[in-house]
């Protein structure tokens, strides 16, 4: 159980982090090899494909070839389900990726918890440049103080308005309209490794990639945690992804 879930229902809280947990997974490098080799070897059992515990140079070479030449379908025969807590504005960016399945908590059917995102002191505040070539720079102490104070004040005011409407008998689906985008929500998201690579290629900023990305920091925080989990599940696939410029096949 998270700290948020253990807190009193109406105590306003502020967080500067996100939660990403692996709920279940059927995902390994052998899934990629199993799917790829059917084109040349015909039918085989998964046990035959997984024979041996150590990856061979041939296995590594095949996965790298598939990644390099963008033969993407073998990377789809696996599944990962993540549980994520993050601000609503992050989820709206998530759902632009229409290559995953989402189930999010509903403000129509449950009273939303008063948990709000406030940027951490190390979060860059200045966006310099033009679309596609932004540079993000730290703000001044005065700017950080302004963001922190204004965010907390607006969140508290909005939640009190929400609570007043609920107390007066107003439906949850109506009362929620006053809540800001920095309120936390939670969801399950399920995707395969090909979809995850597409997501990571756009939502992480890593030097040396073929196609530079300039993600908003808050969704990048989610992406980094998801990538850490995926790396442990499919290390050969992750290594090939990095070696080939972090381009989804």
UniProtKB/TrEMBL annotation:
What cofactors does the UniProt entry give for this protein? FAD
Q: Does the keyword NADP apply?
A: yes
Reaction(s) this enzyme catalyzes, per UniProt: dUMP + (6R)-5,10-methylene-5,6,7,8-tetrahydrofolate + NADPH + H(+) = dTMP + (6S)-5,6,7,8-tetrahydrofolate + NADP(+)
Name the domain of life. Bacteria
**Signal peptide bounds:** none
The UniProt GO MF terms for this protein read: flavin adenine dinucleotide binding; NADPH binding; thymidylate synthase (FAD) activity; thymidylate synthase activity
The protein's Enzyme Commission number = 2.1.1.148
Binding locations of dUMP? 93-96, 104-108, 176, 203
Q: What is this protein called?
A: Flavin-dependent thymidylate synthase
Q: Where does this protein act, in terms of pathway?
A: Pyrimidine metabolism; dTTP biosynthesis
Family statement = Belongs to the thymidylate synthase ThyX family.
Query: What UniProt keywords are attached to this protein's entry?
Result: FAD, Flavoprotein, Methyltransferase, NADP, Nucleotide biosynthesis, Transferase
Q: Where is the active site?
A: 203 (involved in ionization of n3 of dump, leading to its activation)
